[in-house]
Amino acid sequence: MNNIPHSWDLTPSDAIALQRELVGQVDTQTPVDFENLHLVAGVDVSVKDGVSQAAIVVLSFPDLVVVEAVTARMSTTFPYIPGLLGFREGAVILEAYQKLRNRADAYIFDGQGIAHPRRFGIASHIGLWLDAPTVGCGKTWLCGQYEEVGEEKGSYSVLRLQGEEIGAVLRTRTGVKPVYTSPGHRATLDTARELVLRCATRYRLPEPIRAAHNTAGGQAPDIGRQV
Fold first, then answer.
1. Per the structure, how many domains does the chain have?
2. Residue 176 pLDDT more than 90?
3. What mean pLDDT is predicted for residues 174-198?
4. CATH number of the domain that 63 lies in?
5. Residues with Cβ < 8 Å from 49, sequence gap 6 or more?
């Protein structure tokens, strides 16, 4: 992992300025290499009583068996501000990452990648420091416009902002609300969407995100269990 070149203790205005400074380093031209993708991780953070708990759960790919789960906890010092999630959750995520014995080949974040007003959501921000393929998979809309999505699993609509394609609104389960996918770093629009879809089985959320969400909330996954 790269050394973190900035403080997490920033004002919101300074955080926005830093996003604009760093966004030029984000790579959305390199596709996820599925032929050499053997481990995929989900990343999520829960916040309760002023304490953030990050979880990273590593699964085998493509069979999605849990290989490892790690957590980290620290005080939540940055306020919740849409578009600045990386500054609220980044430090605790990287603390959890340091504990991993199995580094994944790609990471799916519960949050946005470049589907973000400044093209620098949490998956892009933390992706720079992991220097690994990262993908954002948000449960809720943050920005952009899109057409109605078909009802069948795998249907999607391109998400655009100011004429630029920034992600996709993807149906991961027939008849269930879609998710919002976008590349974070070292992933393309198409391979970000494909990774999320290939990790989605019986539920709306892809399995790595579901496992990380449950772990962040205190439910440790069974190592070796297919989720």
1. 1
2. yes
3. 97
4. 3.30.2170.10
5. none
